[in-house]
Amino acid sequence: MSAAPTIMLRDDAALRVFDTGQGSLPVVFQHGLGGDAAQVALNFPDGPSRRRLTVECRAQGGSSAGGKRPFSIAMFADDVLAAADAAGLDRFVVGGISMGAAIALHLASRHPDRVLGLVLVRPAWAFDTAPQNMRPYVEAAELIRRLPLDEARDAFASSATSARFSSEAPDNLASLLGFFARENADVFAEVMQAIANDGPGVTRDGAAALAIPTLVVGSGIDLVHPLATARELAETIPGAIFTEVVPKATDKDRHFAEIRAALGGFLDRNINNQDQS
């Protein structure tokens, strides 16, 4: 990763853009909801042959929210494409984690002439808006917007949702509880509510029409990113490769290592020899 990000102005939002600035293979890779470039670095196999570009989406990481509303996956995708344009990336691999995967799927569907390949890591959306697995984000956002933060956290921690996640998906629960401690919790609650009620804007037929190398990575013990969603996308996108990795709740280090290995192997075998002109 470059030593320092650059700042890209979009409307009145200041977005941090990270560009490794090296390598012949350009990859635009995005973080999940509430994540940042550091999350991407844990999952992506950076190396001398790959130039990675990551935008910290509005009100996430070190990027400001700006005044434009509503927040949406399409808005974030437009910001990412603008950053790729500014970096001079004509054609690139696009990918991401969770929300980042939804952004990547949106871009691949809307701009097939720009996309060399697609990587969907732990996708939370397939083709529907506001899927049930994203409902806990709406629940958390509504509490933050209605109550003082300490009361909101206590209410969520004592909820039926929290009890279920504690036993079935503890890693998801830790992430959700962390949102109540964010410095920008109020504005981020707007982001959570809007994005959880949104979707990639890609139909099943649209995904079935994609004609690019695709990798889909899923894992278990995860109620926000169901393994069934990853399998559904892999079965719909022609020729997609599906890889299941060890759950983050079981072994974080191994989880990230297996994702990096899957991505590195996919890029080396399926993308590096493509004509990028």
UniProtKB/TrEMBL annotation:
Keyword Hydrolase: yes
Transmembrane segments: none
Molecular function, one GO term: hydrolase activity
UniProt entry keywords in alphabetical sequence: Hydrolase
Domain AB hydrolase-1: 26-248
Pfam families for the chain: Abhydrolase_1 (PF00561)
InterPro entries: AB_hydrolase, AB_hydrolase_1, AB_hydrolase_fold
Keyword Hydrolase assigned: yes
Protein's name in the database: Alpha/beta hydrolase
Organism: Mesorhizobium erdmanii
